[in-house]
Amino acid sequence: MHKSVLSIGECMVELSQSPQAGLWQLGIAGDTLNTAWYLRRLLPADWQIGYFTRVGTGEFSRKAVDFLAAEGILTRHVGQDPRHEIGLYAISLADGERSFSYWRDNSAARRLADDPQVLADALQGCGIAYLSGITVAILSPGGRAALFEALRQARAQGTQIVFDPNLRPRLWSDAHTMCDQTQTAAALADLILPSHDDERDHFGDADPLATVARYLSCGSRQVIVKAGGAAIHFGGAEGAGVVDGLERAVPVDTTSAGDSFNAGYLAARLQGAGIEASIRSAHDLSRKVISHRGALVVEAV
How many CB atoms lie within 10 A of CB 48? Predict the structure, then answer.
């Protein structure tokens, strides 16, 4: 496998509450970017971590590109849109649980899949392509179809596809479309990293084993079901089982819990660890991340 990961999605300007009352601080984040950021810190330097997105040409878009480059994430596949800008979101916290306010309806990233050739070039020779349900949700139907076709072709050429369903109904026109397109994306994936609470709420899965079975029936090779600190179930071509007895943490901020878990799991597996050891490593990272404010927690890595 070529030692490269291409994370595909939307990075945005993030506003989070400052420790000083009445002030907000600016960052750059987004679910697939968060995972890329943690992967960059967890994997050796001979691994390339790239990001595929689209931003504008204004000051905040330039800040995002500069941030990626400064963090060691390759920016050669970050496109620039002269007519649309980077999206914005703000985080509000209450007892460690976050809520979001978004300004992204006209963001440049919604057009990241508009050019099929650009997608194909970015995926050429890539070892792993990583995306989420948010990546899929923000695209137009045509962009979504172009992304799926590019992933099909890349997978046929040896790229491994990793998918976190990250179900966000607010981003979709209706629940049926969300579930249908999530299943379509899952059918392209070698590894799926769902969260059971989401899958229960939107697919009606009675338990994590039902989530594992449903995604395996789509055609995925392996499924790891996150459970907010509870026992983690997994199944697929590389084996099935459950990892229990995981240390719990009282969350300060759960913003990047799943994104960091995904990075921790992938990094451990790519460095030779088995499934159960990788799950424990991923959980440990996520537990540290939720003990701090913000999506990108230097102290955790």
Answer: 17
pLDDT at 96 over 70: no
Whole-prediction pTM? 0.95
Mean pLDDT value of segment 232-254: 90
Q: How far is Cα of residue 153 from the mean position of the Cα atoms in its chain?
A: 21
Cα–Cα distances in angstroms (integers) from residue 36 to residues 103, 177, 196, 209, 273, in the given order:
23, 27, 22, 28, 19
- Which tokens belong to 221? 């090779």
Query: Torsions phi, psi of 90, nearest 5?
Result: -125, 140
Give me the amino acid identity at 233: H
pLDDT in tens, 162-201: 999 999 999 999 999 999 999 999 999 999 999 999 999 9
Active site residue 201: no
CA distance 85 to 301: 31
Say which amino acid occupies 257: A
Distance of CA 239 to the CA centre of its chain: 24
In degrees rounded to 5, what are phi and psi of residue 164?
A: -105, 115
Q: What are the structural domains, with CATH classification, of the chain?
A: 4-300 (3.40.1190.20)
d(CA 13, CA 126): 27
Pick from 121, 123, 104, 127: which is nearest to 56 by CA? 104
How crowded is residue 226: how many other Cβ atoms within 10 Å of its Cβ? 27
pLDDT band at 74 (very low <50, low <70, confident <90, very high): very high
Rg from Cα positions in the chain: 18
Pick the catalytic residue from 31, 81, 198, 259: 259
